[in-house]
Amino acid sequence: MDKIMEILGGFDIAKILPEVNATVGFIVLLSRIVTFFIPLLVLGLGLTYFLKPPAEANHTFGYRTYFGMGSVEAWQFSQRIGGLVYIILGGVMTLGALIAFIILFSSSIPTVLTGCAGCIVVELVLVLLTTLTLNIIISVRYDRDGYRRGKRQ
Predict the structure, then answer these.
(1) What is the pLDDT of residues 3-53, one digit of tens each?
(2) Closest of 35, 42, 40, 44 to residue 120, by C-alpha
(3) pLDDT digit string (tens) for 91-137?
(4) Chain-centre distance for alpha carbon 47
(5) CA-wise closest residue to 85 among 41, 47, 136
(6) What secondary structure letter does DSSP report for 15?
């Protein structure tokens, strides 16, 4: 070790490394923010789809599905059901994230990071399954041209 220090000429590598406590604290804060961001984003999108959806199908904003963009009726149904389901999902996930935050508040750093990572994975899986379910519901109700199945005119 003395040889290495002699080669470095007294250079202390610890001086160029960032403060470990500050870095770990930032990572914990970031993980907690992301844990709450996903449910709040889903809740916000649900409220927007349900309360103020675009009047007509578009390729920019709204709950867009292949079968929900064929007609105005299919589009409006997609927005209402997508908004309602996302409001419920966002509320449940926000409550779950809040409970996890309370439980993990004074835990050790590895426990907090593991808990936050677990919450994020569960939230993403729930959003994926909900989106898949909504797409199936809309495709069962409407055909690709936007007509209700069994009532084509």
Answers:
(1) 766 776 766 666 666 676 777 888 888 888 888 999 999 999 999 989 988
(2) 35
(3) 999 999 999 888 888 888 888 889 889 999 999 999 999 999 999 99
(4) 15
(5) 47
(6) G
Tokens of 113: 């990071």
What pLDDT is attached to residue 91? 95
Taking the alpha carbons of 17, 20, 22, 25 in that order, is the dihedral positive or negative? positive
Residue 71 φ/ψ, nearest 5 degrees: -150, 170
How many CA atoms within 13 Å lie on the side-chain side of 95?
6
* Residue appearing with tokens 């470095």: 8
**Main-chain dihedrals φ then ψ at residue 142, nearest 5 degrees:** -125, 150
Amino acid identity at 20: V
* Alpha carbon distance, N-terminus to C-terminus of the chain: 86
* Overall size of the chain counted in residues: 153
